[in-house]
Design brief:
The complex is a heterodimer of chains A (172) and B (102). By secondary structure, chain A is mainly α. Chain A is built from eight helices and no strands. Classes of the chains: A mainly alpha (172), B mainly alpha (102). Chains A and B meet through α1, α2, α3, α6 and α7 of A and α1, α2 and α3 of B.
Chain lengths: 172, 102
């Protein structure tokens, strides 16, 4: 089981290094997603299955999809078709696919070994996490909801389309 | 079956954090800088979760949930800033916005 941890750790480091050295934004996003998936596998091995699921759903799912949306929004124009052809270059595929394949093999290995014997000494299950989250950490949950609300309002305010006379009006 | 030592999880978190820091410093594209900040936040969460698994307490996972929430709020604002920067300067180079006015 140690082998699963070290293999996933190596994949995380390799994928992250490859991610920050890409010139193409979509290729970098692919490698970051592989890195997040391997970190999720590490969470699973460390005995935190709930956080592993959150990592896949929220980080690799929602947040990275936001990045992809922005990449799509920024490249509107006549050159977008050429760019699209460049992004679907099959030569970019083998790297992330190979790393993800190793992760899938590790996951299948864990599943076939059985859940209880594979993780670290103690499994902190979702029940314990939610009891603590809505008990002593309740104020943190409320503050997080306020922060998400302000993030929503701030993103709406900052992301408006730039109006020419806006700076002159706000200067008054 | 032997378990993974806690130091190795923390070392992995430190390596990922260092790679994210290098990404922020080296890249001049604001998109990659935001992506590197996400990598750094994820590394901090990994440190929390591995420390929490050492003690068998749920606190580390709760801190990761808070980091996740903060990353979501931060990335929405950051991507709105990227869109605004691109609309004004038609580039993603951070040096283009080096002057503050209005």
């Amino acid at each position: 089981m140690n082998l699963v941890f070290y293999l996933a750790a190596a994949i995380a480091v390799i994928a992250t290094i490859l991610a920050i050295t890409r010139y193409n934004a979509v290729h970098a996003l692919l490698y970051v997603i592989v890195s997040l998936l391997s970190v999720a596998l590490i969470f699973f091995v460390l005995g935190a299955p709930f956080v592993a699921a959150l990592e896949v759903i929220v980080y690799a799912g929602a947040i990275m999809v936001l990045f992809v949306f922005v990449v799509m929004m920024l490249n509107l124009g006549p050159q977008s078709i050429e760019q699209e052809r460049q992004w679907f270059d099959p030569r970019a595929l083998p790297g992330p696919a190979f790393l993800a394949l190793i992760l899938i093999i590790e996951l299948v290995y864990i599943m076939t070994q059985g859940f209880a014997g594979t993780v670290s000494e103690t499994i902190v299950d979702p029940h314990q996490v939610s009891v603590a989250l809505f008990g002593p950490y309740l104020i943190g949950v409320e503050l997080a909801s306020i922060m998400l609300m302000s993030g929503l309002v701030g993103a709406y305010h900052v992301g408006r389309r730039h109006v020419k006379h806006l700076s002159a009006d706000s200067g008054d | 079956m032997a378990t993974v030592p806690i130091e190795h999880g923390l070392i992995l978190a430190a390596i990922l954090f260092a790679i994210g820091t290098i990404g922020v410093i080296v890249r001049r594209n604001i998109f990659f800088m935001l992506l590197s900040i996400e990598i750094m936040l994820n590394a901090a969460g990994l440190a929390f979760v591995s420390a929490g698994s050492l003690w068998g307490q749920p606190d580390g996972q709760i801190m990761f949930i808070f980091i996740l929430t903060m990353a979501a709020a931060e990335v929405s604002i950051g991507l709105a800033l990227i869109i605004q920067l691109y609309q004004r300067y038609h580039t993603l180079d951070v040096d283009a916005s080096s002057e503050m006015r209005g």
